[in-house]
Specification:
The protein is 58% helix and 0% strand. By secondary structure, it is mostly helical. Helix 3 packs across helix 4 and helix 9 packs antiparallel against helix 14. The protein starts with a helix and ends in a 10-residue tail after the last helix.
Length: 433
């Protein structure tokens, strides 16, 4: 059988061949990326102390992986790894939401060993392939395999909760799309799925505005046909068949789960909700102050232009790249459009989901890890995938001699380039401290 023909699925039915091939490619890329991150970390840390090499970077040292592993092994002990002033840099156990460390603890009990966090992370990463196939309707394997090179996606290779959160968010969005077909079942599923998203990371709070706007748009469309069926609009808005209930229940699930976690930690100072901000990283700029915000990044650009860049300034430049990337996605395909171009609309709630993430960053006074939050935001990934690959009904042209084709290749090239930028922050430190 011709290999190329085998990779092409029939026009109807589930594209299992494309999904299986994409899974193999994503798995191989995940292995290669993990080895690269571990090697980079080991190269750096063994110069300080060879004993660091006993623990791989992706499942212990990089990012917050060691905190999740400590909680998975010992539970929430409220142990602080630092005897300096509270709330400055080192976070207490309860600053990490509970679902991922409990999943890691289960993997340890099943024989996952000291890299169980990386195992759970890898399972979530592979789950992204069928999840995004369901969300995008894509039937070509390489367009699904592109998930392995998501912009800033090097963070998704580390055994922490970002990939786990992204997979749960994608599942929640898929459930919300089923509201028109199975309104009651999808609504209950969205409520449960929202609760899981809310217990995975506090980033879920940034999804609530998008889900509420999505619910409003669906409800308005549903109510507009009320006059045609001879039913009062208020009754049609409240009936079970309204698909807007599903994303609204998903948002409710996220809100309830976060409220529960904040409430149950409120007896552990400093975790009362009003002082949670003090338990996070230091404020890098004055919250809500555009001038202070711009000053942080203007300094990083000035250092880079003067050839004085170090890892701290590289971090700022990566954060700036993530902010510009997310803003570009949120503004993509807005009118006026290039004459004769395709109108692959970016839904309003996708834009809201991206902008609410940036707004939370701006109002918190902290841009730290915004590149991780960008890579793990389901609406960022959906918008990027649509701009690059279009839709199955309108995939668009790829000729670089045309303006749309050039833009498409540029967006596609951003994936590996921005992946590499985030890779530099994962322990290699090529620019020194």
């Amino acid at each position: 059988m011709n290999a190329r023909r085998w990779l092409v699925d029939p026009p109807s039915g589930y594209p299992w061949r494309a999904v299986l091939v994409a899974l193999v490619v994503v798995w191989a890329t995940l292995i290669a990326g993990t080895l690269a991150i571990d090697a980079a970390w080991e190269w750096r840390t063994t110069q300080e102390n060879p004993r660091y090499a006993r623990f791989p970077g992706t499942c212990y040292w990089s990012g917050d992986a060691r905190n999740y592993m400590r909680i998975a092994i010992n539970g929430y002990t409220d142990y602080t790894p630092w005897l300096g002033p509270f709330h400055f840099t080192y976070l207490n156990d309860r600053s990490w939401w509970p679902l991922f460390p409990n999943a890691v603890a289960l993997a340890i009990r099943l024989g996952g060993g000291m890299c169980a966090s990386r195992t759970v992370n890898g399972i979530a990463f592979l789950a992204l392939v069928p999840l995004f196939q369901g969300l995008t309707g894509e039937r070509r394997w390489w367009r699904l395999a592109a998930l392995a090179a998501l912009p800033f996606g090097a963070w998704l290779y580390v055994g922490e909760a970002d990939t786990f959160f992204l997979a749960l968010s994608a599942a929640l969005v898929w459930i919300c799309r089923q509201g028109a077909r199975w309104p009651v079942g999808a609504g209950l599923g969205a409520l449960a799925g929202g609760a899981l998203v809310g217990l995975a990371k506090p980033n879920g709070l940034a999804l609530i505005p998008a889900l509420v706007v999505w619910a409003a748009v669906l409800a308005i469309r549903h109510v507009r046909v009320a006059s045609g069926v001879g039913q009062p609009r208020w009754r049609r808005a409240l009936d079970n068949a309204n698909p807007g209930w599903t994303p609204l229940l998903g948002a409710l699930g996220i809100a309830l789960a976060n409220a529960w976690w904040l409430y149950q930690t409120s007896g552990y100072y400093p975790f009362y909700v009003l002082v949670m901000q003090r338990a996070l990283w230091w404020r890098e700029f004055d919250p809500g102050d555009a001038a202070s915000f711009a000053r942080v990044f203007r300094g990083a650009v000035a250092y880079a232009r003067a050839g004085l860049i170090n890892m701290n300034e590289l971090q700022r430049l990566v954060e700036l790249a993530a902010i510009a990337f997310a803003l570009a996605l949120s503004a993509a395909r807005l009118p006026p459009r290039w004459a004769g171009s395709r109108a692959d609309a970016i839904p309003l709630h996708w834009r809201i989901g991206i902008l609410s993430m940036l707004l939370l960053m701006f109002l918190s006074g902290q841009s730290h890890s915004i590149e991780r939050y960008t890579a793990s935001n389901v609406f960022v990934v959906l918008a990027w995938h649509r701009l690059v690959f279009g839709t199955p009904e309108g995939p668009g042209a790829w000729r670089p001699t045309t303006f749309p084709g050039l833009i498409r290749w540029t967006w596609l090239g951003l994936g590996p380039a921005l992946w590499a930028l985030s890779f530099l922050l994962l322990g290699w430190r090529p620019l020194g401290s």
